[in-house]
Structures are given as C-alpha cells and as structure tokens.
Amino acid sequence: MNMCMIDTHCHLEQDDFVVDLNEVIQRAQEGGICCISSGIAPSDWERTLSISKAASNVYASIGLDPMQSEFTGEMINFIRTHRSEIIAVGEVGLDYYRERDHSQRNLQERNFVSAIHFAIETGLPLQIHSRSAGKRCLEILEKNGASSVHMHAFDGRASFARVASRELDYYFSIPTSVVRSPQKQKLVKALDIERILVETDSPVLSAVRGTRNEPSNLPIAIKEIARILRRDEEEMQQIILENTLNLYRNIASSR
Ligand SMILES: [Zn+2]
User: Fold this and answer.
1) How far is the centre of ligand 1, averaged over its atoms, from the C-alpha of 11 (Å)?
2) In 3D, which of 122, 129, 143, 202 has the Cα closest to residue 172?
3) Alpha carbon of 92 to ligand 1 centroid (Å)
4) 228 Cα to the center of ligand 1, angstroms
5) pLDDT in tens, 90-119
C-alpha cells in the first residue's frame, strides 16, 4: 500500500481509543494515512510501542506531558532502552496555561532543556508542546542548539512562527481544528510552505468541537491549508508529505 499522508502527532494509546483502536487504525490505513503516536505519560509508553509494533502504519514517539516533566530522566532511559523502536522524542515542552507557579515553570524549563540535549545527542527529531509558552519554547530551543524541531499545535504568535520556520528551519504541524481556528489559519499563512506538517492530535483538536478526533480525519487539515494558500489540494498533499519525510528521515528510509 502506498502511504500518502502522515499524521505527525496523535495519541492512539489513550483511553479514548480502547474500544475501537483496530478500526481507527484500519480507517487510517484505508485512507493511506501513517501516524506518529506520542505516548506522554510513563504509564502509556509500553502501549505506544506495542501499538506501533502491531500496526505497520503507526510509528512511536515517546515524551511527557510538561505537567509530568519530573519523569524526564525515566523518559530518557526508556528511549535509550528502546531506541530502535522510536522515531522521535516528544511531545515535550512547556505548558504555561496549566502551570501558573513560577518554581514549577522553572522545573518544566530545566527538564525541557535536558530533553532537548538528549534529542540532539541521539539525533531524533523533537516534538514540542508549547501552550501559552510559544515564544519561550522557541527561545529555549534556539539557545540550546536544537535543529530537528517539530512544533505541534503552536498557539503562539504567527510572527514568531514565521521567523522560526524561515530562519531556524523549524517545522510546524497544523491540526484538523484549523477549520475553526482563526489563529491556526493565520499561522498557515505565516509559515514557510516547506515547513508545514499536518496532525490530528487525536483524540483532541477535532474539526468539530467536542467530538473525538482520529487520524482518518487528516485530509480535513490538508484541504483547509490548500484553501488558505490557494493551492491545488493534491499538490499541497505532496508538499506536506515531502516536508514530513525531510524531518522524519527514519520514516523515509522505512518506506
Ligand atoms: Zn498531543
């Protein structure tokens, strides 16, 4: 089967998919969609690996919700132990929306820096969570010399994303919720077209607020990006695929 779209960020190991995971993966496969599933809690990591082992169109990324960043050492050990089964570090990053306490924010930052250095050392791309902390995340990434960077569902200013995509070559994934988010629509216009990726962030960020999202919905994001940039949808799909394979070379080499 010829895979033609990659959902660069979703969470198939989460409880929302317990009942019908096989059907969800099957629907993605029928739509020509590969997924990168990101386990973001120590209790999820083994499941992320087993799902990706069982499904040829699912790849594993291992990370941490920033609110659990105290487990960064465990995350690093886990990735070292399972290095050949993992294609990215993440999501990791900062969540200033949920964390208001200054000393806890500092802790998130220190752990974020450790994760960045680890990703650089292993050569794995980094998937970044930055909620209400877009500018700070970009500053920390640049200062610490990160290079293979994937900003997921970036909620910061389009002007910061513009600079990061054009000058630092950071990639940004546009979620399916772009159809109902003026902020994400603005982001699409600001980015260097060669740095645009797509994601569903399933089970969340659905095109229809309040409904469960799944990877087979990915074409919704591609169609909306094509509309915003006035490109042919198929051409846009091809550009996004090439962008994705430029960052995720480990997927490219397995195709
Ligand atoms: Zn996510």
Assistant:
1) 6
2) 129
3) 10
4) 24
5) 999 999 999 999 999 999 999 999 999 999
- Give the distance (Å) from ligand 1 centre to CA of residue 9: 6
Residue 252 in this model has a pLDDT that exceeds 80: no
Checking if the pLDDT of 4 tops 60, the result is: yes
The band of 255, judged by pLDDT with boundaries at 50, 70 and 90, is low
CA angle 61, 31, 58 (to 5 degrees): 20
Report the separation in Å between the CA atom of 202 and the middle of ligand 1, taken as the mean of its atom positions. 7
Q: Which of 127, 254, 253 is nearest to 201 (CA)?
A: 127
Q: What percent of the chain has pLDDT over 90?
A: 96
Contact 251, 34 (CB under 8 A): yes
State the distance from the centre of ligand 1 to the C-alpha of 217, rounded, in angstroms. Answer: 15
Which position has the token pair 């169109």?
Answer: 57
Q: 65 CA to middle of ligand 1, Å?
A: 8
Q: What is the pLDDT of residues 184-203, one digit of tens each?
A: 999 999 999 999 999 999 99
- Domains annotated on the chain, with CATH: 5-254 (3.20.20.140)
Lookup result for tokens 């990006």 = 225
